[in-house]
Amino acid sequence: MTEQTSPAYAGPARVLSGVKPTGDLHLGNYLGALVKFTRMQHEAETFIFVADLHAITEWQEPAKLTAQTREIAAAYLAAGLDPKIATIFPQSAVTEHAELAWIFNCVARVGWLDRMTQFKDKSGKNKEKASVGLYTYPVLQAADILLYKATHVPVGDDQKQHVELTRDIAAKFNHDFDAPGYFPLPEPIHQGVGARIMSLRDASEKMSKSNPSDAARINLTDDADAVAQKIRKAKTDALPLPETPDELKDRPEAQNLIGIYAALDGRTAAEVLTEFAGQGFGAFKPKLADLAVAKLGPVTEAMRGFMADPAEIDRILAAGAERAREVAAPTLRQVKKLVGFWGD
Ligand code: TRP
Predict the structure, then answer these.
(1) Structural domains in the chain?
(2) Tens digits of per-residue pLDDT, 176-216?
(3) Residue 18 Cα, ligand 1 centroid: separation in angstroms?
Protein backbone atom coordinates (compact mmCIF):
# COMPACT_ATOMS: atom_id res chain seq x y z
CA MET A 1 0.00 0.00 0.00
CA THR A 2 1.17 3.50 -0.81
CA GLU A 3 2.37 5.51 2.17
CA GLN A 4 1.35 9.12 2.59
CA THR A 5 4.13 11.06 0.85
CA SER A 6 5.67 14.12 2.34
CA PRO A 7 4.59 16.88 2.46
CA ALA A 8 1.23 15.49 3.45
CA TYR A 9 -1.95 16.84 1.97
CA ALA A 10 -3.04 19.88 3.92
CA GLY A 11 -6.64 20.34 2.76
CA PRO A 12 -9.84 19.65 4.68
CA ALA A 13 -11.36 16.22 5.34
CA ARG A 14 -13.87 15.38 2.65
CA VAL A 15 -16.09 12.35 2.20
CA LEU A 16 -17.09 11.10 -1.24
CA SER A 17 -18.90 8.04 -2.48
CA GLY A 18 -21.36 6.90 -5.12
CA VAL A 19 -23.72 4.11 -6.07
CA LYS A 20 -24.33 2.84 -9.62
CA PRO A 21 -27.90 3.12 -10.94
CA THR A 22 -27.94 -0.43 -12.26
CA GLY A 23 -30.75 -2.13 -10.34
CA ASP A 24 -32.90 -2.05 -7.26
CA LEU A 25 -31.22 -0.95 -4.07
CA HIS A 26 -31.27 -3.56 -1.34
CA LEU A 27 -30.66 -3.96 2.37
CA GLY A 28 -26.91 -4.39 1.81
CA ASN A 29 -26.70 -1.01 0.05
CA TYR A 30 -28.84 0.55 2.74
CA LEU A 31 -26.83 -0.67 5.73
CA GLY A 32 -23.43 -0.76 4.04
CA ALA A 33 -23.63 2.53 2.18
CA LEU A 34 -26.63 4.82 2.67
CA VAL A 35 -26.73 4.72 6.48
CA LYS A 36 -23.00 5.39 6.58
CA PHE A 37 -23.21 8.30 4.14
CA THR A 38 -25.98 9.78 6.22
CA ARG A 39 -23.91 9.56 9.38
CA MET A 40 -20.79 10.95 7.73
CA GLN A 41 -22.51 14.04 6.30
CA HIS A 42 -22.40 15.47 9.83
CA GLU A 43 -18.69 14.76 10.26
CA ALA A 44 -17.12 16.23 7.11
CA GLU A 45 -18.00 17.93 3.85
CA THR A 46 -19.75 15.16 1.93
CA PHE A 47 -20.21 14.49 -1.80
CA ILE A 48 -22.51 11.64 -2.78
CA PHE A 49 -23.27 10.99 -6.42
CA VAL A 50 -25.15 8.64 -8.71
CA ALA A 51 -22.47 6.81 -10.70
CA ASP A 52 -24.17 6.80 -14.09
CA LEU A 53 -20.89 7.03 -16.04
CA HIS A 54 -19.82 3.83 -14.31
CA ALA A 55 -23.21 2.21 -14.96
CA ILE A 56 -22.74 2.29 -18.74
CA THR A 57 -19.55 0.22 -18.59
CA GLU A 58 -22.16 -2.54 -18.96
CA TRP A 59 -25.21 -2.13 -21.20
CA GLN A 60 -28.06 -0.08 -19.69
CA GLU A 61 -31.45 0.49 -21.26
CA PRO A 62 -31.49 4.33 -21.65
CA ALA A 63 -34.99 4.95 -20.22
CA LYS A 64 -34.23 2.64 -17.31
CA LEU A 65 -30.96 4.41 -16.61
CA THR A 66 -32.77 7.73 -16.20
CA ALA A 67 -35.41 6.19 -13.92
CA GLN A 68 -32.84 4.38 -11.82
CA THR A 69 -30.77 7.52 -11.44
CA ARG A 70 -33.79 9.23 -9.87
CA GLU A 71 -34.44 6.12 -7.80
CA ILE A 72 -30.96 6.19 -6.28
CA ALA A 73 -31.38 9.88 -5.54
CA ALA A 74 -34.72 9.12 -3.86
CA ALA A 75 -33.06 6.42 -1.76
CA TYR A 76 -30.29 8.82 -0.68
CA LEU A 77 -32.90 11.33 0.43
CA ALA A 78 -35.09 8.70 2.09
CA ALA A 79 -32.12 7.36 4.04
CA GLY A 80 -31.56 10.84 5.44
CA LEU A 81 -29.00 12.49 3.21
CA ASP A 82 -29.82 16.17 3.45
CA PRO A 83 -29.20 18.20 0.28
CA LYS A 84 -28.66 21.26 2.45
CA ILE A 85 -25.69 19.50 4.07
CA ALA A 86 -24.39 16.99 1.52
CA THR A 87 -23.83 17.57 -2.19
CA ILE A 88 -25.94 15.04 -4.11
CA PHE A 89 -25.58 14.88 -7.89
CA PRO A 90 -25.46 12.72 -11.02
CA GLN A 91 -21.87 12.00 -12.05
CA SER A 92 -22.51 12.68 -15.76
CA ALA A 93 -23.81 16.18 -14.97
CA VAL A 94 -20.32 17.22 -13.91
CA THR A 95 -18.31 16.74 -17.08
CA GLU A 96 -15.03 17.27 -15.22
CA HIS A 97 -15.20 13.61 -14.07
CA ALA A 98 -14.69 12.32 -17.59
CA GLU A 99 -12.03 14.90 -18.39
CA LEU A 100 -9.96 14.12 -15.33
CA ALA A 101 -10.41 10.39 -16.00
CA TRP A 102 -8.74 10.86 -19.39
CA ILE A 103 -5.74 12.53 -17.81
CA PHE A 104 -5.57 9.75 -15.19
CA ASN A 105 -5.74 7.16 -17.97
CA CYS A 106 -2.38 8.56 -18.96
CA VAL A 107 -1.05 8.40 -15.38
CA ALA A 108 -2.24 4.90 -14.45
CA ARG A 109 -0.27 1.92 -15.84
CA VAL A 110 -1.69 -1.07 -17.68
CA GLY A 111 0.06 -3.28 -15.13
CA TRP A 112 -1.91 -1.63 -12.32
CA LEU A 113 -5.26 -2.17 -14.04
CA ASP A 114 -4.38 -5.75 -14.94
CA ARG A 115 -4.33 -6.49 -11.22
CA MET A 116 -7.89 -5.26 -10.57
CA THR A 117 -9.95 -8.21 -9.37
CA GLN A 118 -13.33 -6.62 -10.11
CA PHE A 119 -12.51 -6.39 -13.81
CA LYS A 120 -11.44 -10.03 -13.81
CA ASP A 121 -14.67 -11.03 -12.04
CA LYS A 122 -16.93 -8.97 -14.27
CA SER A 123 -15.30 -9.70 -17.60
CA GLY A 124 -14.91 -13.38 -16.73
CA LYS A 125 -13.86 -15.65 -19.56
CA ASN A 126 -15.10 -13.19 -22.14
CA LYS A 127 -12.58 -10.40 -21.67
CA GLU A 128 -12.47 -9.67 -25.43
CA LYS A 129 -16.13 -8.67 -25.32
CA ALA A 130 -15.94 -6.44 -22.23
CA SER A 131 -16.17 -2.70 -22.87
CA VAL A 132 -12.96 -0.69 -22.71
CA GLY A 133 -14.82 1.41 -20.12
CA LEU A 134 -15.11 -1.61 -17.84
CA TYR A 135 -11.33 -1.96 -17.98
CA THR A 136 -10.61 1.69 -17.12
CA TYR A 137 -13.52 1.83 -14.63
CA PRO A 138 -11.16 2.18 -11.63
CA VAL A 139 -9.43 5.14 -13.29
CA LEU A 140 -12.76 6.97 -13.57
CA GLN A 141 -13.35 6.11 -9.93
CA ALA A 142 -10.01 7.73 -9.06
CA ALA A 143 -11.12 10.83 -10.96
CA ASP A 144 -14.43 10.89 -9.02
CA ILE A 145 -12.53 10.86 -5.76
CA LEU A 146 -9.64 13.18 -6.54
CA LEU A 147 -11.67 15.80 -8.41
CA TYR A 148 -13.05 16.74 -4.98
CA LYS A 149 -9.79 15.97 -3.18
CA ALA A 150 -11.77 13.54 -1.04
CA THR A 151 -9.85 12.14 1.90
CA HIS A 152 -12.32 9.49 3.08
CA VAL A 153 -14.19 7.10 0.82
CA PRO A 154 -16.88 4.88 2.39
CA VAL A 155 -16.99 1.72 0.26
CA GLY A 156 -17.59 -2.00 0.54
CA ASP A 157 -14.71 -4.47 0.72
CA ASP A 158 -14.92 -5.10 -3.01
CA GLN A 159 -14.04 -1.46 -3.73
CA LYS A 160 -11.03 -1.21 -1.44
CA GLN A 161 -8.67 -2.12 -4.25
CA HIS A 162 -10.01 0.73 -6.36
CA VAL A 163 -9.34 3.21 -3.56
CA GLU A 164 -5.82 1.84 -3.24
CA LEU A 165 -5.36 2.37 -6.98
CA THR A 166 -6.62 5.93 -6.46
CA ARG A 167 -3.82 6.45 -3.93
CA ASP A 168 -1.28 5.17 -6.45
CA ILE A 169 -2.63 7.50 -9.15
CA ALA A 170 -2.60 10.47 -6.74
CA ALA A 171 0.97 9.74 -5.66
CA LYS A 172 2.20 9.31 -9.24
CA PHE A 173 0.43 12.47 -10.40
CA ASN A 174 1.88 14.48 -7.50
CA HIS A 175 5.31 13.10 -8.30
CA ASP A 176 5.26 13.30 -12.11
CA PHE A 177 3.96 16.86 -12.20
CA ASP A 178 6.15 18.03 -9.36
CA ALA A 179 3.18 18.94 -7.19
CA PRO A 180 3.91 17.39 -3.79
CA GLY A 181 0.77 17.12 -1.65
CA TYR A 182 -1.49 18.33 -4.48
CA PHE A 183 -3.83 15.36 -4.31
CA PRO A 184 -4.56 13.67 -0.98
CA LEU A 185 -4.04 9.92 -0.70
CA PRO A 186 -7.61 8.94 0.24
CA GLU A 187 -8.52 6.28 2.78
CA PRO A 188 -11.20 3.66 2.20
CA ILE A 189 -13.66 3.58 5.10
CA HIS A 190 -15.26 0.18 5.36
CA GLN A 191 -15.56 -0.60 9.01
CA GLY A 192 -18.65 -1.17 11.03
CA VAL A 193 -21.57 -3.52 11.13
CA GLY A 194 -23.47 -3.94 7.97
CA ALA A 195 -20.33 -3.74 5.87
CA ARG A 196 -21.01 -7.24 4.59
CA ILE A 197 -24.61 -8.23 4.20
CA MET A 198 -24.76 -11.58 2.43
CA SER A 199 -27.36 -13.21 0.16
CA LEU A 200 -30.36 -14.75 1.98
CA ARG A 201 -30.09 -17.81 -0.28
CA ASP A 202 -26.34 -18.39 -0.21
CA ALA A 203 -24.35 -16.75 2.56
CA SER A 204 -21.08 -17.20 0.67
CA GLU A 205 -22.14 -14.43 -1.75
CA LYS A 206 -22.75 -10.76 -1.11
CA MET A 207 -26.34 -9.55 -1.23
CA SER A 208 -26.35 -8.13 -4.74
CA LYS A 209 -28.66 -6.36 -7.13
CA SER A 210 -27.41 -8.56 -9.93
CA ASN A 211 -28.38 -11.87 -8.28
CA PRO A 212 -31.07 -13.42 -10.51
CA SER A 213 -33.00 -14.63 -7.46
CA ASP A 214 -35.06 -11.82 -5.96
CA ALA A 215 -35.46 -13.92 -2.80
CA ALA A 216 -31.73 -13.50 -2.17
CA ARG A 217 -32.12 -9.85 -1.26
CA ILE A 218 -34.43 -7.43 0.48
CA ASN A 219 -35.07 -4.54 -1.88
CA LEU A 220 -35.70 -1.07 -0.52
CA THR A 221 -38.88 -1.06 -2.60
CA ASP A 222 -40.22 -4.33 -1.08
CA ASP A 223 -43.40 -4.01 0.95
CA ALA A 224 -43.75 -5.39 4.49
CA ASP A 225 -45.15 -8.75 3.32
CA ALA A 226 -42.31 -9.32 0.90
CA VAL A 227 -39.71 -8.43 3.55
CA ALA A 228 -41.27 -10.80 6.08
CA GLN A 229 -41.58 -13.60 3.56
CA LYS A 230 -38.00 -13.33 2.36
CA ILE A 231 -36.74 -13.47 5.93
CA ARG A 232 -38.99 -16.44 6.70
CA LYS A 233 -37.55 -18.27 3.70
CA ALA A 234 -33.93 -17.25 4.28
CA LYS A 235 -31.57 -20.19 4.40
CA THR A 236 -30.53 -21.20 7.92
CA ASP A 237 -29.34 -24.20 9.87
CA ALA A 238 -31.14 -26.29 12.47
CA LEU A 239 -29.03 -25.39 15.50
CA PRO A 240 -30.06 -23.00 18.26
CA LEU A 241 -28.30 -19.63 18.42
CA PRO A 242 -25.06 -19.67 20.42
CA GLU A 243 -23.94 -17.30 23.14
CA THR A 244 -21.03 -15.66 21.36
CA PRO A 245 -20.27 -14.42 17.80
CA ASP A 246 -17.18 -16.69 17.72
CA GLU A 247 -19.44 -19.72 17.66
CA LEU A 248 -21.06 -18.46 14.45
CA LYS A 249 -17.80 -18.78 12.53
CA ASP A 250 -18.79 -21.91 10.63
CA ARG A 251 -22.45 -20.96 10.34
CA PRO A 252 -22.45 -18.28 7.61
CA GLU A 253 -26.26 -18.12 7.24
CA ALA A 254 -26.77 -17.70 10.98
CA GLN A 255 -23.97 -15.17 11.10
CA ASN A 256 -25.56 -13.18 8.29
CA LEU A 257 -28.99 -13.00 9.92
CA ILE A 258 -27.51 -12.02 13.27
CA GLY A 259 -25.41 -9.41 11.49
CA ILE A 260 -28.49 -8.00 9.77
CA TYR A 261 -30.36 -7.85 13.07
CA ALA A 262 -27.43 -6.11 14.77
CA ALA A 263 -26.98 -3.58 11.95
CA LEU A 264 -30.68 -2.73 11.78
CA ASP A 265 -30.86 -2.31 15.53
CA GLY A 266 -27.59 -0.41 15.94
CA ARG A 267 -26.24 -3.12 18.25
CA THR A 268 -23.30 -5.52 18.15
CA ALA A 269 -23.72 -9.19 17.22
CA ALA A 270 -22.65 -10.06 20.79
CA GLU A 271 -25.50 -8.00 22.23
CA VAL A 272 -28.01 -9.60 19.89
CA LEU A 273 -26.82 -13.09 20.85
CA THR A 274 -27.14 -12.29 24.54
CA GLU A 275 -30.82 -11.78 23.87
CA PHE A 276 -31.39 -14.79 21.57
CA ALA A 277 -28.91 -17.44 22.77
CA GLY A 278 -30.54 -20.88 22.98
CA GLN A 279 -33.41 -19.97 20.66
CA GLY A 280 -33.89 -21.47 17.21
CA PHE A 281 -34.61 -19.70 13.96
CA GLY A 282 -38.31 -20.41 14.33
CA ALA A 283 -38.28 -17.88 17.15
CA PHE A 284 -35.61 -15.56 15.82
CA LYS A 285 -36.84 -15.04 12.27
CA PRO A 286 -40.20 -13.46 13.16
CA LYS A 287 -38.35 -11.02 15.46
CA LEU A 288 -35.94 -10.18 12.66
CA ALA A 289 -38.84 -9.73 10.23
CA ASP A 290 -40.60 -7.34 12.63
CA LEU A 291 -37.43 -5.33 13.13
CA ALA A 292 -36.70 -5.16 9.38
CA VAL A 293 -40.23 -4.03 8.60
CA ALA A 294 -40.13 -1.42 11.39
CA LYS A 295 -36.78 0.00 10.23
CA LEU A 296 -37.19 -0.24 6.47
CA GLY A 297 -40.89 0.63 6.24
CA PRO A 298 -40.41 4.35 6.81
CA VAL A 299 -37.47 4.43 4.38
CA THR A 300 -39.49 2.68 1.68
CA GLU A 301 -42.35 5.05 2.35
CA ALA A 302 -40.14 8.12 2.09
CA MET A 303 -38.56 6.77 -1.07
CA ARG A 304 -41.98 6.34 -2.67
CA GLY A 305 -42.83 9.89 -1.69
CA PHE A 306 -39.75 11.27 -3.42
CA MET A 307 -40.29 9.08 -6.47
CA ALA A 308 -43.80 10.45 -6.81
CA ASP A 309 -42.25 13.89 -7.32
CA PRO A 310 -39.51 13.51 -9.95
CA ALA A 311 -39.45 17.26 -10.56
CA GLU A 312 -38.32 17.79 -6.97
CA ILE A 313 -35.62 15.11 -7.35
CA ASP A 314 -34.45 16.82 -10.53
CA ARG A 315 -34.25 20.19 -8.77
CA ILE A 316 -32.15 18.66 -6.00
CA LEU A 317 -29.84 16.91 -8.48
CA ALA A 318 -29.41 20.05 -10.58
CA ALA A 319 -28.57 22.16 -7.53
CA GLY A 320 -26.16 19.45 -6.34
CA ALA A 321 -24.46 19.31 -9.72
CA GLU A 322 -23.96 23.05 -9.65
CA ARG A 323 -22.39 22.90 -6.20
CA ALA A 324 -20.21 19.95 -7.20
CA ARG A 325 -18.97 21.88 -10.21
CA GLU A 326 -17.87 24.74 -7.97
CA VAL A 327 -15.34 22.38 -6.42
CA ALA A 328 -14.60 20.26 -9.48
CA ALA A 329 -13.93 23.06 -11.97
CA PRO A 330 -11.04 24.71 -10.10
CA THR A 331 -9.40 21.30 -9.52
CA LEU A 332 -9.56 20.45 -13.21
CA ARG A 333 -8.28 23.91 -14.15
CA GLN A 334 -5.25 23.46 -11.85
CA VAL A 335 -4.64 19.94 -13.14
CA LYS A 336 -4.66 21.12 -16.77
CA LYS A 337 -2.18 23.82 -15.87
CA LEU A 338 0.08 21.34 -14.08
CA VAL A 339 -0.06 19.00 -17.09
CA GLY A 340 0.88 21.89 -19.38
CA PHE A 341 -2.25 22.18 -21.48
CA TRP A 342 -2.71 25.43 -23.38
CA GLY A 343 -5.07 28.00 -21.87
CA ASP A 344 -5.51 29.64 -18.49
N1 TRP B 1 -17.46 1.48 -8.00
C2 TRP B 1 -18.36 1.81 -6.91
C3 TRP B 1 -19.27 0.60 -6.67
O4 TRP B 1 -19.50 -0.19 -7.54
C5 TRP B 1 -19.19 3.02 -7.24
C6 TRP B 1 -18.31 4.22 -7.36
C7 TRP B 1 -17.99 4.90 -8.49
C8 TRP B 1 -17.61 4.86 -6.30
N9 TRP B 1 -17.15 5.93 -8.23
C10 TRP B 1 -16.90 5.93 -6.89
C11 TRP B 1 -17.52 4.62 -4.92
C12 TRP B 1 -16.07 6.76 -6.13
C13 TRP B 1 -16.70 5.47 -4.17
C14 TRP B 1 -15.97 6.53 -4.77
O15 TRP B 1 -19.78 0.47 -5.58
Answers:
(1) 14-196+309-339 (3.40.50.620), 221-305 (1.10.240.10)
(2) 999 999 999 999 997 655 558 999 999 999 898 888 899 99
(3) 5
